[in-house]
Amino acid sequence: MKTVAIYKQPPLSSVNNIFTLPFVPNVWIVLFIVMSVFAVTLIFLIWMSNWLHGVEMKLSFALDTVTLALLFLMSLTGYNAHLFSGISVAAAHYSIPARIATFTLFLCAVFLFTSYAACIVVLLQSASKTINTIVDLANKPITFSVQDTKHNYIYFNETVDENIKKIYFEKMKPQGAKAFTSPEIGVERVRNEFHSYLVEITLAYNIIAKTWQEHEKCSLSETELYKIPLLTLYVVKKSGYKDVFKQKMIQQHEIGLKYRITKKIMPQKQKCSANSGVIRFNSVTMKEIYPALIFLGYGICASCRK
């Protein structure tokens, strides 16, 4: 028997820029190095081809070649990859080495784009791990309520823990009577809102098992705010049964009988059934694509400058 705060972890896309997460920093560095090497290689090959054919190499043409090489990164997002290949080959239609370099660059981009896109899909469906402690509950923008029991009223009014006092005064008091509520209402708020609910854990497990769907259990987390003293057996002072009870309780614990009875009678924590056969994809909102829109906006502004 213990009391914990249950909550759902926020989506990964709400706390991180998922467009930078598929690759580690070293991979991004390698991508820029590869892009630069291919840009220099294309300029050199086209310059050599023009020199062999007696054609003057213009600076604008060299810059166009570099621009085409920069489209290598653009092809990772899936936009104009076919255009990149077509323009590059057209620009180097008379140079077989340039064609080979362009084909190699584009083939590399295809493999990278496949990995990048697959990672993005997984990250969109993933939950973060940003809330793990009482400090996180106090500082993160998550609402908070408590099971309506007498000892919770006493504890939150008399606690000396600074983080719990912060939760009480900043997150609970503004709610008024809604700060202390029944397990059914509290667990339902956790299900539908970015909300944390302090509840006796067996009650929460029972409600979750009956009402939540399988995919909703995967992002569920819990944090213990305070420990309740273990239940004890009371006997008459100097009773001869004291040692008997002690020995039998230890024996039940050692042979696993206590664990079996607890597991059979008490509702257990619901596991995320990843292999249930049900595949569910969350809808993508403006929040997920916001970094991409910002990048697009900067690109449009830069292209409009004269």
Automatic annotation (TrEMBL):
Q: Name the membrane topology term.
A: Multi-pass membrane protein
A GO cellular component entry from the record: plasma membrane
Gene3D superfamilies xref list: Periplasmic binding protein-like II
- Cross-referenced InterPro entries: Insect_Ionotropic_Sensory_Rcpt
Q: Which UniProt keywords apply?
A: Cell membrane, Glycoprotein, Membrane, Receptor, Transmembrane, Transmembrane helix
Q: Which PANTHER family match?
A: GLUTAMATE RECEPTOR 2-LIKE PROTEIN (PTHR42643:SF33), IONOTROPIC RECEPTOR 20A-RELATED (PTHR42643)
Q: Protein name, please?
A: Glutamate receptor ionotropic, kainate 4-like
